[in-house]
Amino acid sequence: MRLIEEYARGGTGLAVDEVWALEAHLEKCRDCRDRLSAAVTADAPAVAALTEAVWSDLEHRLASAVPAPARRLRARLSAWTTPAMTPWLAMVLAVALLALLLDLAGPGSGQVSLVLLLAPVLPVCGVAASWSRGLDPAYELTAATPRAGLQLVLRRTVSALAVVIPALLAGGWATGVTAVQWLLPCLAFTSLTLALGGVIGVSRAAVALVAAWAAVVVAPTLATSRTAAALQTEGLPVWGLLLALGVGVVIARRGAYTVLGAHR
After folding, report:
1. DSSP SS3 for 228
2. How many angstroms separate the CA atoms of 264 and 253, rounded?
3. Burial of 233 (0-12, 13-18, 19+ CB in 10 A)
4. Per-residue pLDDT reduced to its tens digit, 236-262
5. Using CA of residue 116, residue 241, residue 187, residue 213, what is the dihedral sign?
6. Per the record's keyword annotation, is NAD included, yes or no (predicted)?
7. What is the pLDDT of residues 138-189, one digit of tens each?
8. What stretches of 201-235 show up as alpha helix (H) in DSSP?
């Protein structure tokens, strides 16, 4: 009750984590919302009067408005994706398709698979688009909601992986590239993007890791026509360690995703 009364007076005496916890609780608890309403009426009459004036002005407009049809599917998708993700995911799928076509049209089995080279970093582009300040016009509103933070980052990451990984699995099957070679590096790259994103921003982290992958793995592989050691089965334990490290950092720094800096 103390938190609600202080929140009704403006919340200046509450810590940031207390405000976020209270707002998240108010979304689910009607009894506490009623207590907040009573506290506002008693302790902040000016706010109550303003709310009443706004409501009286809107009440007749809302009564005459035609209710829009329920769009449950869109509402559910909005909790997992943003409109800005659609063109970026389409671009990622187009790149995967192009790599598949180049592999199928290649001169022989000795050529290094482009699907194998691109698979570990393609989902990172979708993850960056899902949490980018420049691509999401509602990023400030999103970051200010009680449910923002790690939960929302993970939801959008899962939605990007759910689109990209099946396409890569199909491409790998068509070209003879096994998922063992790229799936673990793919998940490790994704977790490292989120881990580094908590420090410098998810988009910047994605750009940095993709550039490092291109310089360290893709360029030498194309120059020598030999699959890099990072993509061979001997390197899988290292990728597993990097995946665990990325997940650990994300969990340890989960509070970093509630600030606007993570959208850089």
Report:
1. coil
2. 16
3. exposed
4. 888 889 999 988 988 887 776 666 555
5. negative
6. no
7. 566 666 665 566 777 777 788 888 888 888 888 778 777 777 778 888 888 8
8. 202-213, 219-224
